[in-house]
Amino acid sequence: MKAIACLAALWFATVQGVDAVETQPPAAPAAAASAGAASAGDLAALAESGVATVYAAAMEGRLTSSGEPYSATALTAAHRTLPLGSRVRVTHTRNGRTVIVRINDRWGGGAGRVVNLSRRAAVDLGMNPDAGTAPVQVDVVFLGDNARAAVSEKMVAGAVSRELPPRLEPRDAPKSTRCANEAAILGLTGDLLQAHVRGCMSRRGRDPK
User: Fold this and answer.
1) The whole model's pTM is what?
2) How does DSSP classify residue 112?
3) Cα–Cα distance between 117 and 133 in angstroms, integer?
4) DSSP per-residue string spanning 29-74
5) Per residue in 136-177, pLDDT tens?
6) How many CB atoms lie within 10 A of CB 90?
């Protein structure tokens, strides 16, 4: 009888254990990292529209904020605030062409400017990579983690480290100086710098007077 009782007790404990496993609520998922884990609604809230510009040819090989040398043939872009490593879909709102680029650099921008594109990305959008701007919609596809690249010595051979000048505000300088400052942030030199300053001086609306 004792043996039967022991077996019954063991069976009862086993059943209880199975029931406990089966009825236990699923464990809460580990806290997802903010990078790449944002909901569709969160990503949609980050969408913005404005003007896209293009990296100057002189920026080739210079180190970006991610630690990678800038390459005109890569599908990359600079943005003021999105985490490095983010992927965004850039849509040319006039011709409907789109391109997905990876954010790997920071950029001072200017009034209405939302993204600075590599030359390849600009060509894919149908822009003039030498002097063009375009109205665009920027939609975030994936949020990066702000990680800097593990850059090898080979990657940075010949690369030039650069530090963006701080952006001047209206209270700090006249418009002509601010326009030159904007051109410097974009890495423009020579005729391109002068053309940018002239265009900047003629801008109205949101651009500070």
Assistant:
1) 0.58
2) T
3) 10
4) PPPPPSTTT--HHHHHHT-EEEEEEE--GGGTTBB-TTSPBP-TTS
5) 999 999 999 887 755 444 444 444 445 556 666 777 788 888
6) 24
The type of residue at 24 is Q
Domains of the chain, first to last? 40-164 (2.40.40.10), 165-209 (no CATH)
- Give the pair of three-digit tokens for residue 182: 């904007």
Strands (E), 72-128: 76-78, 87-92, 98-105, 113-117
- How long, in residues, is the chain? 209
Pull the structure tokens for residue 183. 């051109």
User: End-to-end alpha-carbon separation of the chain, Å?
Assistant: 98
- Digit-coded pLDDT (tens) for 45-92: 999 999 999 999 889 999 999 989 999 999 999 999 999 999 999 999
CB 50 within 8 A of CB 88: no
The two beta strands, 98-105 and 76-78, are parallel
93's tokens:
């709102």
- Token pair 């089966």 is at which residue? 22
